[in-house]
Amino acid sequence: MAGGNLMHKVMSYVVNELLVNSLANSRSFQKFAVRTSKKIEDLSKTVGEKKEVLKDFSKNFQEVSFFSRVFFSPI
């Protein structure tokens, strides 16, 4: 049983090394990685901007809600 485990680790290491080296030397993979990184960075920036807009909207909504309760409350 221990021999099978050792063989699995060796095969896993060899496949991993081959895969990493082939991807590291692949221009198309590098282009893919750069494009993907750029898109994720842009999405992250967009989400941050939208979060700020929603935060401002929430603040304004709370203020309007407060004034509407004051304005429409019975005296």
Q: What is this structure, in a nutshell?
A:
With 75 residues, this protein is an all-alpha fold. It contains two helices and no strands.
How would you characterize this protein structure?
With 75 residues, the protein is mostly helical. Helices cover 92% and strands 0% of the residues. It has 2 helices and no strands. The chain starts with a helix and ends with a helix. The mean pLDDT is 85.
Count of DSSP strands: 0
Rg from alpha-carbon coordinates: 28 Å
Profile the largest sheet: none
Please state the average pLDDT score: 85
Distance between the termini: 84 Å
Report the sheet-strand fraction. under 5%
Structural class: mainly alpha
The SSE string, one letter per element, is HH
- The residue ranges in which pLDDT falls below 50 over 5 or more consecutive positions are none
**Structural shape:** elongated
Name the helicity range: over 70%
Provide the fold topology:
Elements: H1 2-24, H2 27-72
Descriptive terms for the model:
mainly alpha; 75 residues
